[in-house]
Each structure stands twice: as structure tokens, then as C-alpha cells.
Amino acid sequence: MAATAELFEEPFDVDEYIERLAWRTPGGGSKGGAEAFDPKRLLEEFVNHIEELKMLDERIQRRVEKLEQQCQKEAKEFAKKVQELQKSNQIAFQHFQELDEHISYVATKVCHLGDQLEGVNTPRQRAVEAQKLMKYFNEFLDGELKSDVFTNPEKIKEAADIIQKLHLIAQELPFDRFAEVKSKIASKYHDLECQLIQEFKSAQKRGEISRMHEVASVLLHFKGYSHCVDVYIKQCQEVTYFRNDLFEDTATLCQRVNKEVREVFSSPENVMAKLIQNVFEIKLQGFIRDRLEECKRSDAEQYLKNLYDLYTRTTNLASKLAEFDLGTDKQTFLAKMIKGIFISYLENYIEIETGYLKTRSSMVLQRYYDSKNHQKRSYGSGGIQDLKERIRQRTNLPLGPSIDTHGETFLSQEVVVNLLQETRQAFERCHKLSDSSDLPKNAFRIFTILVEYLCVEHIDYALEIGLAAIPSTDSKSAPLYFLDVVQQANTIFHLFDKQFNDHLMPLISSSPKLTECLQKKKEVIEQMEVKLDTGIDRTLNCMIGHMKHILSVEQKKTDFKPEDENNVLIQYTNACVKVCGYVGKQVEKNRNSMDGKNVDTVLTEFGVRFHRLIHEHLQQYTYSSMGGMLAICDVAEYRKCAKEFKIPLVLQLFDTLHALCNLLVVAPDNLKQVCSGEHLTNLDKNILHAFVQLRSDYRSARLGRHFS
After folding, report:
1. What GO biological process, any one, is recorded here (predicted)?
2. What are the E-state strand segments in 270-426?
3. Interatomic CA distance for residues 267 and 373, integer angstroms
4. How many angstroms separate the CA atoms of 414 and 623, rounded?
5. Cis omega (within 30 of 0) on the bond before 11?
6. Among 465, 458, 468, CA closest to 412
7. Where does residue 210 rank: exposed (0-12), middle (13-18), buried (19+ CB within 10 A)?
8. What is the spatial distance between Cα 13 and Cα 11, in angstroms, rounded to a whole number?
9. Is residue 546 classed as helix, strand or coil in its secondary structure?
């Protein structure tokens, strides 16, 4: 294989190259073949090939040296050429500098010459213009306008320019000598102004924007330019207000004419501001006045709804109009427009709002009490009433005769929803219609009305009625409705609290009125909690009183000391059955009437009193062996009933009572062992002794010695 430079082109692999060389050598293959492997021949081939590679290397080396010499030669030639080009560039740059200086010199001369020509031409032009004006002035002096510019309607623009200048000149002339000519110029000035305005009017009707712009540009220097703007504003409104929605029509109008105003007038922001001012002061103000005045005196509710709706729609319209260019301070401008319309209505808004809210709240309550055929009682504060309240809080005694409400709580979800709905709407109107500085104060006034009618006149009144309706503890079977009052009062107060947080707090959160509102709310809560606590306590007393009545009527002395010990067929006494049935109902009623931690608190108190009643009741009897077993069965039922409380303390008390009852039946020798049991070990010995004394065999078995 002849060695050539092409064999070493990239990518080059030495192993592959040698393998290929060996493979092509006869007898050089490593894997056998037609000829046997011949190492000598392969070595000879390698030696020859190495010689060829050396010769190839020498040839390439000579070629490289030749190319390097050629490259060096060309580099020297290129460097020489670059130096020559740099010299040429420097020469050209010098020429450019000289040319620039020459051009600057010529330009200075030309400017100077231009200034001189202008200095000569300007007076000449002024003289020519003055000559023309004098010519036209002479025509007015002669009383006959012959120039084509005044007689040709097509040249109204040129005529307007001339008459405007003549009008300015005429104002400087003495009146006594030039009264007539001044009158003629003024008349012509007025005629041309009217013609231009009429032309503008016609062009607007035809929709020719370019012509409108041209005429407006001419009228810009006339006194009647503002009248031109008025004409435009009047005409653009003629094709707009066809629908019933004045506010949407106004937004559409401004959106439509905004681009047109920019193309026609040189000060579009002033024209747009004047258009909006015109719409607000004429269209909107008249519309709003008609809507509000017709119901202001006759229907306060509709008046407030209309005021809120119209004010909201007006402010929304102003927000849309703020997108247009109306000058430097468009927000102040739009606020001024809104204030101009509503100021007379907003000044006394809160008086009307609070007056309506009081009337409406009073009517809602009165309508409810009328539907119940209820004549509202007076529970006013001060004097005797305050004294009664303090006595009731300290002694928990009913003051005055109990009244029969026939199960009526005098709390209505519908009434509450109506009052809260009216107040929520009042808060929304207050937020929108009150000045930012008056907002917290106005919101507080609305809140006090809500407190007065919802919390005081409705909830507090119902609590007073509920307290008065609670029977005395010695009543035999009087129904208890106060827990129904509690349940509804809790629900209502949650709604009241939600409105306080959702609608009042955002209005007063950053003002000193927040503290007043929180204090007011706290006072209302505390006042109602006192009455709720009092009512619940008295209700629990009534429950215990009724249970005591059941026990006194149903429990017989022979229940626990039967005449025939061997003929006791009942598992527990009738009194126990009735008491447990009654307690189960009251537990469920308590659980349904309370919420949160109040459930556990009230049931704990009820359970403790229930335990105390049974404990004291059991200590009234003497127990035989069989009677003691029956007492244990009764207490087991009471304990099962106590589980429904789901209060660990109550269950623990009845577990202890059950253990105490075991002392009634245990063998005398086992008394000490039972007393040291889990439930009794921590009890006072006097309590244990008191129970043991109830046994019929206490004296005969000399059981007292176990406690000596």
C-alpha cells in the first residue's frame, strides 16, 4: 500500500491504519486465509512502508517550508500596502477637514445673506399686506365692496382672514371720525362669522371632517369660536339620546366623538371637557333632579334607592369618561361635575337615611308583634326597673308574676333578616354617598340604630319576656320555653356579628369610631349574656324542681324497704324511670339550644345539680338488703342517663354515687374493703358513714364501729 498524504486525513486511526496495512500484505493476516501467516514478509512490508513514510514526511516538510516562505513574503507585501492605505486615508481626512471648513464658511455667508434678504423682504411683505388691507379698508370707506374676495363665496376663508385683521385695526381707530366704517367692518365681521358657523354646521351634518377642521381653524381667531364649539356639542347630541339609558348613551357619545374632536379642533381636550360639562349640567342634572324630587317627600325608601343608584351610575360614568383627555386634572374636573349635581342631596343624606331606617325598623317590629296579637310590654330602664334587675342578678329570684307566652319566643328569623337587610343596604349607601371624612361617623349612627332595634327592642325584649315566663321552681309541670329563646338568640346574634364584621368594619377600621363600635357591641353582648345566664340558671332550677316533684310523688318509702323481701319483681323504681325520661329530653333540648363551649358548660352545671338532687334524695330513705339492690339499680339507670351528657365530670360523680350505693348492700365485714375502692378512697369518711347509716341493719350489725 503506497504511502500518500490522503491516507492521513481526519479522522485518522493508527490501529485501523496498521490493521489495514497488515491485511493487504500477503501472508500478513492474523486470522488465517488463503496463505499462511508469514512474519518475515510482514516485517519486510512494515520496513518498506516505514521508508515510504519517511520519504513522504520529507516531501511534506519541504512543501511546508515553501508555503511558510511564501506566507512571510505575502505578509510583508500586505503590511506595506496597509501603510500606503493609511497614508492615503490621512491625506483624504485632511482634505475632508478643509472641505468641512469651507462648507461652514459658505453656510455662514448664506445664512447672513438670508438674514439680509429676510430683513429686506419682511418689510416689503408687510408693506404689500398693508397696501392690500388699505385697499380693502377704502372699499369699506366707499361703502361698496368690489373685491372678488368679498363677493366670491368660494373665497370665504381669505375674506375671513382679511376681515379679522381689519376688525383689529378698526378697534384702534377713533370712534368720532370712523364710526361708520367701524360699523361696516363689524357688520361684515359678524356676517362672515355667522357664515362660517353655518358652514361648520352644514359640514358637521354632512360628516365632512376635513371641512369642519378647515372652518374651525379659521374661526379659531374669531370671537365666535366658542359658539362654533357650542354648535358642535349641540348637534352631536341630537343623534345620541334615543334610548332610555342616559348614562350608557353619554358614554357611547363621548366614545364616538372623541376621535372626531381630535381631527376637527386644535384643542380637543377643552372641547371634550366642555361637552362633558354640558351633558352633566343639562342632561344628567335635569334627569337626576326629576327622578329624585318626585319621591323625596313622599317615599323615603324609593328616594334613597334612586339616590344610591343614580350616584353609582354617575360615578361609573365618570370612571369611563376619565379615559379621555380632558386637560391637566381630569379627576378633579369630573369630581366637581358630580358634586355640582348631588351636593344638595348629599348634605342631608344621613338624616334621611337614619330617619327612614328608624321608621322602617319600628314598622317591621310592630308588624311582627301585631301578627302575634301581642301588646308590647314596657321594660324601661331607670328607677325601679334598674333595682329589680340588680336584685335579680344577685339573687336569681323571679320578680313579679310569671306570664304565659304559650310557647312563643317573640324572636323571629324573618324580622331579623329584614332588619339586617335594611341595615346592610344602609351601610352600602353610606359607603357610597358619605364623604370620606364623615363615613365612620355616619356608619356609627346606622350601627346604633341596628343595636337599638335588633338587640334592644327585639332580642333583649324577648329575653325579658322569656325571663318573665320562666315558672317558679315549685311549679308542678309548667313548660319551659326559655331554652328556645336562647337557641334563637344565639342564631340571631351570629347573624348580627357577621354583619358587624362584613359590612361595618370596612367602613370604620381606620378611624377612632372603631373603638366606640367595639365598646358598644361589647356592652350589648354583656347585657344579653347576663340575662341569658340568669334565664338558663333559673331554667335549670325549674328542671331540678320538676325532677324533685317527680321523685316526691313517685318514690315510695316501701320502694327501698319492701315488706316482702322475697317478692320484689321490678328492676328499678317508677320514679327513676320518669326522672331519666325527663332528664334525657332536657339534655337533648339543652344541646340543641346552645353552641360551642356553652353546651358543655350548661350540661356540666345541669349534671352537677342532677347528681346533687339524686344524692340528697337517696339520703332520705332507709334501705333493706333488697331495697339497697333496687337503689343500686336506680343509680345505674341514673348513671346510664348521665352518659348522655357526654361530660366526664358528671359521669364521674354518678360512678362515685353508684359506688356509695354499694355500701347499702355489702356484707359488714367487707365495708372497709369497699370504702378503700377506686371511687371511694378519696371521699370524706363522714360521707361514707352517712350512707352506711341508711342501712336498716346499721344498729343491729353495729356498723358504726368501722368508722370510729
Report:
1. Golgi to plasma membrane transport
2. none
3. 72
4. 57
5. yes
6. 458
7. exposed
8. 7
9. helix
Q: Which DSSP helix (H) or strand (E) runs through 441?
A: helix 439-450
Distance set, CA 401 to CA 111, 408, 471 (Å): 116, 18, 9
Buried b (16+ CB within 10 A) or exposed e, 360-388: bbeebbeebbeeeeeeeeebeeeeeeeee
Picking from 261, 308, 311, 255, the residue whose alpha carbon sits closest to that of residue 284 is: 311
C-alpha span between 486 and 492 (Å, rounded): 10
pLDDT tens by residue, 499-510 = 999 999 999 988
Is 115 a residue whose pLDDT tops 80?
no
CA distance 130 to 120: 16
The model's pLDDT over 380-427, given as tens digits with 9 standing for 90+, comes to 544 444 444 444 444 544 444 556 667 788 888 999 999 999 999 999
As given in the structure block, the three cell numbers for residue 602 are: 350548661
* Whole-number pLDDT of residue 140: 58
Query: C-alpha cell of 499?
Result: 354583619
Tell me, what amino acid is at 34? A
CB 692 within 8 A of CB 698: yes
Give the separation between CA 613 and CA 576, rounded to whole angstroms.
Answer: 12
User: To 10 degrees, what angle do helices 330-346 and 285-296 make?
Assistant: 20
Here the cell at position 551 is 321523685
Q: What is the pLDDT of residues 651-686, one digit of tens each?
A: 999 999 998 888 888 888 788 888 888 778 888 888
Spatial contact of 254 and 284, defined as CB atoms under 8 Å apart: no
A 10 A CB-CB count for 4 gives 9
Domain spans, the chain: 5-131, 149-328, 403-547, 556-706
Which CATH code of 1.10.3230, 1.20.58, 3.30.9, 2.60.98 fits the domain covering 556-706? 1.20.58
How many residues in the chain? Answer: 708
Question: Which backbone phi and psi does 153 adopt, to 5 degrees?
Answer: -60, -25
State the Cα–Cα distance between residues 165 and 187, nearest whole angstrom: 14
| Cell numbers for 262 | 381630535
